[in-house]
Amino acid sequence: MANLKLTGVQKTYGGSINVLNDINLDIQTGELIVFVGPSGCGKSTLLRMIAGLETITAGEFTIDGQRMNEMPPAQRGIAMVFQSYALYPHMTVRDNMSFALKLAKKTPAEIDAAITKVAETLQLTEYLDRLPKALSGGQRQRVAIGRSIVRDPKVYLFDEPLSNLDAALRVATRIEIAQLKESMPDSTMVYVTHDQVEAMTLATRIVVLANKGIAQVGTPLDLYERPENEFVAQFIGSPAMNLLPGKIVETGDVTTVRVDHGNGVIAANIPSKPDMKGAVVNVGIRPEDMTPVTGDNYAFENIVEISEALGEVTQVYFKRQDVNSSPVIAKLPGIHRDVRGQRMRMSTEPEKIHLFSEGVSLLYR
Amino acid sequence: MSGIAGTKSSLTWAVHLSLAVMVLLWLFPTTGLLVSSFRTADQISTTGWWKSMFASEQNLTLRTAAPDYQTTQDGNYVIQGNLFEGSAAATISVWGISSRAIDDYKAGDTAQLKKGGTVTVEVNGDYLMQNTEAFTGKRGQRIFATAEKPPEFTLGNYEFVLFDPSNREGLAKAFFNTLTVTIPATIIPILVAAFAAYALAWMDFPGRALLVAAVVGLLVVPLQLALIPILKLHNEIGIGKGYLGAWLAHTGFGLPLAIYLLRNYMVGLPRDIIENARVDGATDFQIFTKIVLPLSFPALASFAIFQFLWTWNDLLVALVFLIDSTGDTTVMTKQIVELLGTRGGNWEILATSAFVSIAVPLLVFFSMQKYLVRGLLAGSVK
Amino acid sequence: MNPALQALVTIIVGVGGCVGYFYFSNQFLDKVLFPAKGPNIARNITRANMIRPWLFLMPALLALSVYLVYPVVETLRLSLSERLPGNESRFVGLANYQTMLEDAKFWEAMRNNVIWLLVVPALSTAFGLLAAQLSDRVRWGNIAKSMIFMPMAISFVGAAVIWKLVYDARPIDQDQIGVLNALYLFFGGTEPQQWLTKLGWNNFYLMAVLVWIQTGFAMVILSAALRGIPEETIEAAIVDGASPIQVFFKIKVPQIMGTIVVVWTTITIVVLKVFDIVYAMTNGQWETQVLANYMYDKLFRAVDWGVGSASAMVIMLMVSPILVWNIYNARKEMK
Ligand SMILES: Nc1ncnc2c1ncn2[C@@H]1O[C@H](COP(=O)(O)OP(=O)(O)O)[C@@H](O)[C@H]1O
Ligand SMILES: [Mg+2]
Hints:
The structure holds three protein chains of three kinds. Chain A is an alpha+beta fold. Chain A is built from eight helices and 21 strands. Chain A has two domains: about 230 residues, P-loop containing nucleotide triphosphate hydrolases (Rossmann fold), CATH 3.40.50; about 120 residues, CATH 2.40.50.140. In chain A, strands 6-7-8-3-9-10 form a six-stranded mixed sheet, sandwiched between helices. The model of chain C has no long low-confidence stretch (mean pLDDT about 85). Classes of the chains: A alpha+beta, B alpha+beta, C mainly alpha. The complex binds adenosine-5'-diphosphate and magnesium ion.
């Protein structure tokens, strides 16, 4: 029951440090929106503007059509979970959870009922009378989440809630959050992370932030399969997508390209307009889509410089012809011994190829 | 450092030794005062206090009980008792019955008395005089003894300084006056400063940086400048000299440090916690009272100790704003300065009074040292 | 009224008044002036939040301006005027300063103050550094620190009594009860000395009292700074073959230079304000006058407000560089 709408939102710190520009975003009730992007790109800033902890320099932010720009945080119907958990260190778990309810003048009975229920769901019942310092990291995290749930807000805001946990706990808590979301289909959640696995697994839609703006909005698979630009293409997926410079030789429903350091031509299942013929493009191939070929048509050929056997896959690194570029990487399924030093030719299927002209995908041109 | 191979042990000894010397040097003057306060006026003026710790060999002139107290035993006239009755015990090594031969006898020996009879003196001062005839005269026999006196201390000075109602220079009243000045002068600035510090740390308003700078500047303004203007002001608005004026003055003079310390501490509290409280619906007032104040306890304690020590030990503010011509509101520091003038030679009174006045700060110091150190660090390492 | 009762009432009224002021002014702001409800809620809350900081600050600002800012201005005015009968005063320009500059006692106080300023901060910092360095290297260091730090809690007046006992002198034929004379005679002195009346030297005996008090302060701060030095830099120096002395002067001291400066300036300010010690021990006799006591003399014994205020302004002038420096640093840090 909460529609969030950002229109032309901009943030400038101290009159001169411009952090975000022209953010337009429509978040529907029940969505779990994830903001991803490299560190320092303004994810937290955007979330904090939604929370009301930062003023919005320009543009408008509404919840259910009501302008929120000047509304203080407490009146926005939101709850927030911080990366540092921000538990009140001098209060027990119970007091931490009841703080907001007491401020809202709820009756003791209501407060008790709410806390009991949430504590049970999050398995915190036996810790209710402990101070935060007597809890483990994972428990503190759950208290922080529980504290937001008891308030029954319309919108949940999470700012990197898992990044202080170790790897195993992070996975477990991630799953808990996913289940939590499922149990509350009406609540809207905005989740900030720099971890793309969290983004891919949790999100209804992902918002990729870069260069002071939104690089792309879409479902996780959208972003993976149809990245709008080179930034998103390389940001989503690990290792990052290989970009190989080339030229368009044939346009039409299927575009044919020649890769500079490859041989022959390869086809991509991407339509292109006739005036694109001869245009310089970047051919994008994800490492996991790279396959060794034997024929004369291939996208890339060189000697394997490094190979990393991970068990289920073997990652091989090729040096590029122009020395300064990052290596080309291929993920070969299974175990491959003695590939190091071998000369290999690589290519992929037409539907796995991405084409970018001036940084933007041909799909969206 | 200690784990590094080949560290010379001679160097370690030098470190221990130099530090020990330094500690002794720093401790020695205060110890002198403390020890002196437990000695009688006589003792203080005849021997250095450092000698009082050890048993001292002294030549004493003592007297047995007078013949009035003689009894008869088995037909003999007997006077017995202890030479040290009524004073501290000592150990007699040698003794005599003439001032020209004070070491004729060893302890336990028996001497022949000129007027007839014998006297035996034991190590612990027990004596026994025996004669077949009655002892005569008004006074007892003089005994010259060389005795080892153990250290001797008295609480008499404290009794005199604190509880003797006939002592017009007694410190009891000044003690309570000091307390009366100190407590409100400690609590009120904390409260006022805490609110201001919160505003300067966590609220956004134009001119905030300027105010912080102003507080830093006021930190070093000598309170000497305030003496006449504030005294004039107090007189004009009818406060005059008295407790109220002293409380207000201490509050005003203590505020810069209080605000500075508390603000520095509060700024260091995690931003997330305060923002979370804001999201939780707390107003600034609630954030302050329910979150910031409890979390700032260490800083509050630090400042409270500073202010307590400062107001307790203060002389200048009391002289100027508190003590009127009746002297009813005199504080301990003022009274001790006066004693220094009038009783400069009476070390037992001076030492005891001084020690009474520094006992409370020392108590506070040793029990709350942790907070004091923290406060000092917060206040100066910047 | 019984002072104890009065104190109790003051505490209750004072504390209650403060709390009440803060509570009710906030209530008034949120409930009456700009209620957080109705159609203008957002605007009201914004406005309330613009006013609230000033509510929080008001009592402190009031006290600071009355007790510290106003006196500076007023003292300046007094130092430039002459008191006339009937609470009147007349502007006399720099006449008071001139009188003061012609007063030999003033120059004596200035000279002594300069000596104090040179000696006390230097010795306190040096001893403090020594104590910090030594006590960090032994297991009983904390106890040692506690003992050296202890004089901090003692009043200047108490310290004056303590040290008067140290400096006490008895006639030659009696046992000395002052440690200094006892030692002096023990090491071959011929006659007990009246230390506090020995012209020229007596200043140093007074300074010893303040050094004794301030060393602990310097030690505590410098000890924390020494501990803050990254262990690796010291280990690297040892591996490079530096001797302990070299490590101390070439590695440690440079790294805590900033703290040393802070300690030095803090003690400098204490020295500029030093009053009680001189007042209680010599009262400025035997050429031991210092500015703060000179000023007190002028204000309350000679009742010469003009010259008294002028000398107060001299003290203010002397702390001003530190004041400016502190503000400069604070502003730099806030950015
Ligand atoms: N209060 C502030 N003043 C100036 N710049 C800020 C402030 N807060 C954040 N920034 C800048 O804004 C940018 C975005 O920060 P943030 O939103 O925290 O990034 P992230 O995406 O890592 O969460 C960063 O470059 C940061 O330096
Ligand atoms: Mg962030």
